[in-house]
Specification:
The strands form three sheets. The chain has a five-stranded antiparallel sheet, with helices on both faces. It starts with a helix and ends with a helix. It has four domains: about 425 residues, Multidrug efflux transporter AcrB transmembrane domain (Multidrug efflux transporter AcrB transmembrane fold, Up-down Bundle), CATH 1.20.1640.10; about 90 residues, 2-Layer Sandwich (Alpha-Beta Plaits), CATH 3.30.70; about 90 residues, Alpha-Beta Plaits, CATH 3.30.70; about 55 residues, no CATH class. About 65% of the residues lie in helices and about 10% in strands. The chain is α+β, with helices and mostly antiparallel strands. Strand 4 and strand 5 form a beta hairpin.
Length: about 725
């Protein structure tokens, strides 16, 4: 990269162009959906309803308004023709219409509206493709009829269209502000452009990978928004790390080529560790049984690794080309953050306790969180699918979302009647309609509470499943789907949490050699994110401060997937900042042995850099808050709040206070683990031989001598292992 930097850059440009070609048309292959678990009781019930009774959840719903009422001769004739046209369209499996059978449940209370529902072929993306080609030719004014559309397939189409528009809007909003932040922080337009170049390459590469993934698995339409936000956010982090280290090397007197080499070996390794941390955090989502989260995990893992690859290959080559023109840094530390660190370390208990109390208070609303499933209300209020669904909910007697269907495949005889009566008297059941299909079984359509995500609706599902039935019994409906999805996620959540905890602890132990600091990072990270979750509940579930983030529909619940996705991303970024801070604190502690001064020096040296990175990440991810789609608005707002809280309150106050109180215990580990870390540190040092100052070489020699003796002091091993690895 230093001998032939222009060749490296040419290769990177050609590869990026090829990946851009591969990624063309990716957005058209993405689909909305995947928010529910498969293989559950409600999923099996829906399959049985569709296969045996022809009554599955419709993919497309047409609301038909008729001048003069839906029972007028003109409305009947035109309604039959419309239903026939839908049934004859390619990709339509089955159609249920009010005409000609005059099905009561498909007629509005005032008789001016009726419904036509359609089951579409294939998976979510296939159904969305059918709806995209079919709906424009059906909706609008049709004689005495006026038609509008909703349903999962049309919601998917509108979500894709709006998210694509929001992506462009977010990039136009975030790019100039991010560039301005970088120019102010780095005091050079040329230096500020490097992180943006990393972001562009990583996003283009990830989009190409997403297109390939669409042939193997369903990929969410929102993966593009995540790729753009996270790709540019990580690019800012990595670009700042590399450019700052390069400038420090130049300021220390190194020649440009030597400065590039040192930067690639030191800050480049930190970038690699950071990318692995983010990727491991995102990988925990792969074990959860929701296709939406799995596709977002693949996007997050890809963009993190590609951002690191672009940073460690392209940036050194660019630095080798521009050389000292990128400018030398001024003062390497921040006087403001040094003053904050000195104040905190003088009275660590008071500052630490006060900060922890503030985070706990912010987290308090999370105590009454309610989780739900996303639906058409996540779209803007003026979106066709949203307004049509709202009218159906208001104008029809028993909207489908309020129905809980009990499937009795083999039940017959008087036992069914007795069971139906017991169902009617369950708390929350407002009505029961029995449908017998000869040779196939019986259906009980139970009208439940108005909101299928309410505690009352969830209790009704539990009571139905606890009620003895005359034979096999399956419960379907939106309320049952939510209950099953929550249970499926809860079953796999310990495994996902274990992946995050174990991998993060191991990575931080290998970095620090400490038993305590990795545990501290996990606890503090969880506390910080819980505070952010509390704010999200206060805003998006309870509906406060809507003027600050833009209008959205308040459903009284948070989408089940968003806190999980937000945790994976924000936790990875938080550990990223933790790694950078601890590496500086450890370096100072090794050289001076004074824990308090090491903490002050670490905060002073990283405070400005971490705050700048967090501010840029907050701008890039916070741009999602301008989206008209509620789940993107929630994700963007939550990530922006999480990184800002972590970079200021946590890294500036809580972590320094804890490390000051812990003192020498920060760097202690049992003898077996200390020996393991010493060997790991020596391995790193051998790979960096000749690049560090004399103190590193002498420290390494001391480490080698100590590990070869028959009696080894745990304290001595710990100190020498820190010295041996301080170069990283």
């Amino acid at each position: 990269m230093t001998r032939n930097p222009r060749l490296v850059l040419l290769f990177a440009a050609v590869l990026t162009a090829l990946l851009g070609t591969v990624g063309t048309g990716t957005h058209d292959r993405l689909a909305n959906g995947g928010y529910t678990a498969s293989g559950t009781e409600s999923a099996r019930a829906n399959q049985l309803l569709a296969a045996r009774f022809g009554a599955g959840n419709p993919d497309l719903v047409l609301l038909v308004r008729a001048r003069g009422g839906v029972d007028s001769p003109a409305a009947r004739e035109q309604g039959r023709r419309l239903a026939a046209k839908v049934a004859a369209a390619p990709g339509v499996d089955a159609v249920h219409a009010y005409w000609p059978a005059k099905t009561p449940g498909l007629r509005s209370k005032d008789g001016h509206e009726a419904l036509i529902t359609a089951d579409l072929s294939g998976e979510d993306k296939d159904a969305a493709r059918t709806a995209k080609s079919l709906v424009p030719g059906l909706t609008g004014s049709r004689g005495v009829l006026t038609v509008s559309a909703t349903g999962p397939a049309w919601v998917s189409v509108e979500a894709g269209r709006i998210s694509e528009q929001d992506l462009v809007k977010a990039e136009l909003f975030a790019a100039p502000i991010t560039l301005l932040i970088l120019v102010v922080a780095l005091r050079s337009l040329l230096a500020a452009l490097l992180p943006l170049a990393i972001g562009a390459v990583s996003v283009v590469g990830t989009v190409a990978l997403l297109r390939l993934l669409t042939y193997a698995m369903p990929v969410s339409v929102f993966a593009m928004n995540l790729t753009s936000a996270l790709g540019f956010g990580l690019a800012v982090d990595y670009g700042l790390f590399l450019v700052t280290r390069y400038r420090e090397e130049l300021r220390a007197g190194a020649a440009p080529e030597e400065a590039v080499t040192r930067t690639a070996r030191t800050a480049g390794r930190t970038v690699a560790v950071s990318a692995c941390t983010v990727a491991l955090s995102m990988s925990a989502l792969l074990v959860l049984p929701l296709p939406f989260l799995r596709s977002m995990a693949c996007a997050g893992i890809a963009v993190a690794l590609l951002a690191a690859a672009a940073a460690t290959v392209i940036v050194p080559a660019l630095l080798a080309v521009v050389g000292p023109r990128i400018g030398r840094s001024g003062r390497p530390d921040s006087p403001l953050w040094r003053a904050v660190a000195r104040a905190v370390t003088r009275r660590p208990v008071y500052y630490g306790a006060g900060c922890a109390l503030a985070l706990v208070l912010l987290a308090t609303p999370f105590g009454h969180v309610r989780f739900g499933l996303t639906d058409e209300r996540a779209l803007p209020a003026d979106a066709s699918a949203h307004t049509t669904a709202r009218e159906i909910r208001e104008h029809f007697e028993n909207p489908a979302e309020q129905q809980v269907t009990v499937v009795l495949p083999g039940a017959k005889g008087p036992g069914v009647s007795a069971y139906a009566r017991r169902v009617f008297w369950l708390d929350g059941a407002r009505g029961v309609i029995r449908t017998d299909v000869p040779g196939r079984g019986t259906l009980l359509s139970v009208t439940g509470p108005g909101d299928p995500q309410s505690p009352a609706a969830q209790r009704l599902v539990r009571d139905l499943r606890a009620l003895p039935a005359p034979g096999e019994r399956l419960v379907a409906g939106r309320a049952a789907l939510l209950a099953d999805t929550r249970a499926a996620v809860a079953d796999r959540l310990p495994v996902a949490a274990g992946i995050v905890l174990v991998t993060t602890w191991a990575m931080l132990f290998l970095l620090t050699g400490s038993l305590l600091l990795p545990f501290k990072a996990l606890v503090v990270g969880a506390l910080s994110l819980t505070a952010s979750f509390g704010l999200m509940v206060y805003v998006f579930q309870d509906g406060h401060l809507r003027g600050l983030v833009g209008d959205f529909a308040v459903t009284g619940a948070l989408d089940l997937t968003m806190p999980l996705l937000m945790f994976a991303i924000a936790f990875g970024l938080a550990i990223d900042y933790e790694i950078f801070l601890l590496s500086r604190v450890r370096e100072r502690y090794v050289l001076g042995g004074d824990n308090r001064e090491a903490v002050v020096e670490g905060v002073a040296r990283t405070g400005r850099l971490v705050t700048t990175a967090a501010l840029a990440v907050a701008v890039v991810t916070g741009a999602l808050a301008t989206s008209g789609i509620t789940v993107l608005k929630l994700l963007g707002t939550g990530l922006a709040v999480a990184v800002l809280v972590d970079a200021t309150l946590v890294r500036g106050i809580l972590v320094p206070a804890f490390m000051t109180v812990a003192g020498r215990a920060n760097w202690w580990a049992p003898a077996p683990l200390a020996r393991l870390h010493a060997r790991f540190a020596q391995g790193i040092e051998r790979g960096q031989e000749g690049e560090g100052p004399a103190v590193i070489s002498s420290a390494t020699a001391a480490a080698k001598e100590s590990t070869s003796s028959s009696v080894v002091s745990n304290e001595h091993i710990q100190r020498t292992s820190l010295l041996a690895s301080s170069q990283k």
